[in-house]
């Protein structure tokens, strides 16, 4: 009987170690797959106008004046999967990168400039920030934080996507991209 209990404990220990190894292997492979899938600049030959975009769960909203946004053709705010996105259209992929990436980077991510005098493009600035209540005191107002955690450059488009982090935003952007190219 004592020997049976020992064998049972050893088998239990071996199964536990195998399960831990399997979970470690599956976690590490998922990380590398996500990194490959969540590239920030993709499909340089892709070209579409905002008016031609047809994606399930997308509602195009407000259009912004692009007079002060260098080389931009059109910019629209939209809702995709119940989250905010901003789509910026350029004539070419090269123009999107050369003239648009700096502007997109300045309003996305944890270091984004979403209020004050240093905003690079004023048009629609209030739509690129959100009010987050200050912790501990409901009377303290709120902090202006960036709505967009990151962006995707796909062909001639720059797509800013809502999210608390770059990864969350890129996940939303890539979901939008997948709907655009099934």
Task: Describe the secondary-structure layout.
Blueprint: H1 2-37, E1 41-42, E2 58-64, E3 72-80, E4 83-90, H2 93-106, E5 129-133, E6 142-146, E7 148-154, E8 157-162, H3 166-180
Parallel strand pairs: 1-7
Antiparallel strand pairs: 2-3, 3-4, 4-8, 5-6, 7-8
Q: Strand arrangement, largest sheet? A: 1-7-8-4-3-2
Q: Total number of helical segments? A: 3
Task: Note the run of SSEs as H and E.
Answer: HEEEEHEEEEH
Question: Main beta sheet, described?
Answer: 6 strands, mixed
The 3D shape can be described as extended
Strand proportion, as a percent range, falls in: 25-35%
In the residues, how many domains can be counted?
2
**Rg measurement, Å:** 23 Å
> Approximately how much helix is present in the residues?
25-40%
Global mean pLDDT:
86
Comma- or semicolon-separated keywords:
two-stranded antiparallel ribbon; 182 residues; alpha+beta
Could you give a short description of this structure?
By secondary structure, this protein is α+β, with helices and mostly antiparallel strands. The chain has helices at residues 2-37, 93-106, 166-180, and strands spanning 41-42, 58-64, 72-80, 83-90, 129-133, 142-146, 148-154, 157-162.
Care to describe what's here?
The chain is of the alpha+beta class. The protein is 36% helix and 27% strand. The chain is built from 3 helices and 8 strands; from the N terminus they run H-E-E-E-E-H-E-E-E-E-H. The chain has helices at 2-37, 93-106, 166-180, and strands spanning 41-42, 58-64, 72-80, 83-90, 129-133, 142-146, 148-154, 157-162. The protein starts with a helix and ends with a helix.
């Amino acid at each position: 009987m004592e020997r049976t209990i020992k064998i049972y404990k050893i088998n239990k220990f071996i199964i536990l170690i195998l399960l831990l190894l399997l979970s470690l292997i599956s976690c590490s492979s998922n990380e590398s797959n996500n990194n490959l899938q969540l590239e920030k600049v993709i499909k340089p030959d892709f070209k579409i106008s905002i008016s031609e975009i047809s994606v399930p769960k997308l509602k195009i909203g407000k259009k912004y004046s692009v007079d002060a946004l260098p080389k931009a053709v059109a910019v629209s705010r939209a809702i995709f999967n119940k989250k905010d996105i901003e789509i910026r259209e350029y004539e070419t992929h090269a123009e999107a990168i050369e003239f648009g990436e700096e502007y997109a980077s300045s309003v996305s991510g944890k270091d984004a400039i979403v209020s004050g005098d240093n905003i690079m493009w004023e048009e629609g600035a209030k739509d690129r920030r959100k009010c987050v209540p200050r912790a501990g005191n409901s009377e303290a107002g709120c902090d202006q934080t960036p709505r967009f955690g990151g962006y995707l450059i796909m062909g001639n488009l720059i797509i800013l996507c809502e999210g608390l982090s770059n990864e969350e935003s890129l996940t939303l952007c890539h979901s939008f991209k997948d709907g655009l190219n099934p």
